[in-house]
Amino acid sequence: MSIEPAFIVTGFIIVAAVWEWFAGRASREQKSREDWQIAFISALGMSLIQRPALIFAVAWLGGVIIPQYQGSLSWLEAQYFWPTLLVYIALEELTHGAGHYFAHTRRPRHRGLQYFQRLYKVGHRPHHFSGGNDGKGQLSVTQTFVEHWLWWFIMPNYWFQFIALYLGLVEVFVIGTVFKGLWAAHNHVNWNYDLYFLNHPKTWVRKSMYALCHVLTFPTQHHHHHARGRNSAKNLCNLLAIYDWLIFDSLVIEKEKPTTYGWRQAPEEEHSALYRYFHTDLRV
């Protein structure tokens, strides 16, 4: 495939953002000026700096350390495409969930790990800001890619993606990245269609959806991860809730949307999009 995966995901995000706007779900009190600004900064940084830098780093390191393995798994893609794609998605999601878990878990006792975890906490914090401190902010599709500039360089799943590409899994990389990107974006859109099924009058529909929520992550599950309260460290996986259920012990299935989104922000400095994106305080 020759289509750049980022274009497909970006197209969906643009369409969903326009829908949110016309549906009245991106009003000024629901989505602040700083939310729009950091979305623009994050998109620019991801496209022009972080993604190209990571691709270059993997290609350079691969060329120095394991040049003989460049393209070595292309036969796997050619002969066993669908099993390889499923394994790729499963491993990419697991590495994402592990990094995300580390960003939200309690502080480790080892001093060195505390500083290492601080990278993740600083890198992930901007993703959890929605609106101001008044509790009126709502989750928006543009939040999909909003992170600190550190995030792309410390998350293991991004390295995994480009290592797979270096090893020759080109079509698997493209299709897997598009699928995962679209699912993650759809979980950030300001809708909660899964609640219709979780609260359906027919018992078999409710139970079937509840069971499915143990396997896949749906919008309301991820919205609760973005809530202000006890669930903000839950539902860590963007796609495979089975990891939240069986590995991270972080699965939460609520039957109504959160009342308040976003973490509380420091009164002055974190109202600046530039501060959110660039400030790097690694003190424990």
Can you characterise this structure?
Helix 4 (81-104) runs antiparallel to helix 7 (156-166). The relative contact order is 0.16. Helices cover 57% and strands 0% of the residues. It contains 13 helices and no strands. With 284 residues, the protein is mainly α. It is globular and about 55 Å long. The protein has one domain.
Gist of the model:
With 284 residues, the protein is mainly α. The chain has one domain (32-260, 268-278).
Question: What is the CA-based Rg, rounded?
Answer: 19 Å
**Kindly, what is the distance between the CA atoms of the first and last residues, rounded to a whole number of angstroms?**
45 Å
Task: Give the DSSP E fraction (strand runs of 2 or more residues).
Answer: under 5%
The mean pLDDT is: 94
Give the proportion of residues in helices: 55-70%
Unreliable segments of 5+ consecutive residues: none
The geometry reads as globular
- How many structural domains? 1
SSE series:
HHHHHHHHHHHHH
Number of extended strands: 0
Structural class per helix/strand content?
mainly alpha
Main beta sheet strand tally, sense and closure: none
Number of helices: 13
